[in-house]
Amino acid sequence: MVRRWSPPEVGAPLAKYHHLAAAPADSELLFIAGQVGTDATGALVGDDAAAQARQIFANIETLLASAGSGPEHLLRLFTMVAGTEHLAGFRSTLDEVFAAWFPGGDWPANSLIVAAALAAPEIVVEVEAVAVVPARPAG
């Protein structure tokens, strides 16, 4: 369904991502707003990047499921981390989640920036996503 690749004419990706991702013509694009580490009640789950990222990825999986999609349909992630001190915690959680979601290493395109701050001082990670909603049968 989703096709992801990195052509050899461009330098290899620096982390767990591919340079390109394409959606099939018979599908819809799904844009997921920036997710932060809040649970269903709106409470932030922790003050560290690992805990917040774990919740973010759980939220993304729930949002994808609500649209009839799943992690295997992710085209792109855009990750924001508030300060370099939070990179290790985020990356360790990303490794765990990607091992479960993409055991074959077929990762989506991903960009990561380090920002001075996010929307509130206690938020240390935010992730946006673009995914594909598989074509639904006619009828």
Automatic annotation (TrEMBL):
Q: Look up and give the organism this protein is from.
A: Nonomuraea deserti
This protein is called what? RidA family protein
Family affiliation: Belongs to the RutC family.
Question: What InterPro entries does UniProt report for this protein, alphabetically?
Answer: RutC-like_sf, YjgF/YER057c/UK114
GO CC, one annotated term: cytosol
Q: Which GO terms describe its molecular function?
A: deaminase activity
Please spell out the taxonomic lineage of the organism that makes this protein.
Bacteria, Bacillati, Actinomycetota, Actinomycetes, Streptosporangiales
